[in-house]
Design goal:
Strand content: 15-25%
Order of helices and strands: EEEHEEEHEHEEEEHHHHEHHHEH
Largest sheet: 6 strands, mixed
Helix content: 25-40%
Radius of gyration: 21 Å
Shape: globular
Number of strands: 13
Distance between the termini: 28 Å
Number of helices: 11
Structural class: alpha/beta
Length: 340
């Protein structure tokens, strides 16, 4: 009997405003992301996504006939996406034709990050609070919230229904900010003066640090420096600027409040997975600050919220891992929890 040919790898891409990361997936493996295949390229160095893909193929010596592109933007009819701060025009069928591939699928980057959850190993997770890690896939139904700060605030739902994982794509980061404390109200007034409507994303993202810093400086009657998000976090970490420390602490608390609201909105009683490009910087502050207190402070639902686990994803490439999970499902194979 002839041995079946090894399945061709699937090209994976995680496309943001500044960088694009590529990798390959072997959909026949329990851990489908081929970690030694990961490469990063700067968007500004290439005229198009197709050019960057050609360079990746040349650099690695690999080819692929199928592709899954996770992009930081809203996917229109599964075909096109306009990525924030990215000049490339990306259309699935045009890319497929140009590269002579069999298929190219576009997905939202946060949908991909949500799909990474079933493949994460225990050492790629870090608990925020005393609750045990969620028991993924051990019962049904299950509903999780996946959220986190990067260039913006991404929000998705992850549902387990009839032995299938389903991603609920949302724009929950753009929901209006709900003030819960007297200081929240003062912050809201100042951001409302600047922006009009104030969404959660105005505070929980990289630039949100600057928005919070300016608001807190005004509340304290202190002169504000022209700091970048990196300036604020580095000074907070060093403890050299009390206002920067206060800014990061405040963001951690508001983050917890918004995460708790999302559990109530989506019915995510089984847990919250935190991710996003800014999370590694914020994680120490989230763990030691009042993230959990504000997460749980939901009035008559406090006792319920105290049981809901919050977990940080510490995998270096959750977008590519989730795209690999989608490649497995597209190939008609089941996901193996924890990658095996």
């Amino acid at each position: 009997m002839r041995t079946p040919a090894r399945a061709a790898p699937t090209l994976l891409a995680d496309l943001g405003g500044t960088n694009v990361r590529f990798a390959l997936a072997d959909t026949g493996r329990a851990a489908p992301l081929m970690e030694d295949s990961v490469r990063r390229y700067r968007v500004k160095d290439y005229a198009s996504l197709a050019d960057a893909i050609r360079q990746y193929f040349e650099d690695t010596g690999h080819r692929a006939q199928r592709g899954i592109i996770a992009a930081a933007g809203r996917i229109s009819e599964g075909e096109t996406v306009k990525v924030t701060n990215n000049p490339w025009q990306v259309a699935a069928h045009a890319l497929q034709t140009e590269l002579q591939m069999d298929s190219v699928h576009l997905v939202n980057d946060f949908a991909a990050q949500a799909m990474a959850v079933p493949l994460l190993l225990a050492d790629q997770l870090s608990s925020v609070g005393p609750q045990p890690l969620p028991p993924l896939g051990t019962r049904e139904p299950q509903t999780y919230v996946v959220m986190g700060p990067g260039t913006g605030l991404g929000v998705a739902g992850l549902l387990r229904r009839e032995s299938h994982w389903i991603v609920l794509e949302t724009e929950g980061g753009h929901a209006g900010f709900a003030a819960h404390t007297a200081e929240d109200v003062e912050i809201l007034h100042r951001l409302n003066d600047r922006f009009g409507r104030v969404s959660n994303e105005r505070m929980i993202c990289g630039n949100g640090l600057v928005n919070l810093y300016l608001a807190l400086a005004d509340i304290a009657g202190e002169p504000a420096e022209e700091y970048t998000p990196e300036d604020i976090t580095s000074r907070a970490e060093a403890g050299t600027d009390p206002l920067c420390v206060r800014t990061v602490e405040t963001l951690a608390g508001i983050f917890g409040s918004v995460a708790g609201d999302l559990v109530l909105s989506l019915g995510g009683w089984d847990g919250v997975y935190l991710t996003g490009g800014v999370l590694p910087i914020l994680l120490p502050w989230i763990k030691r600050g009042n993230f959990r207190e504000r997460f749980e402070a939901k009035g008559r639902f406090r006792e319920t919220m105290e049981q809901v686990p919050t977990v940080a994803m510490v995998h270096p490439e959750p977008g590519l891992l989730g795209a690999a999970a989608l490649a497995v499902l597209e190939a008609g194979r089941p996901l193996v929890a924890g990658g095996g």
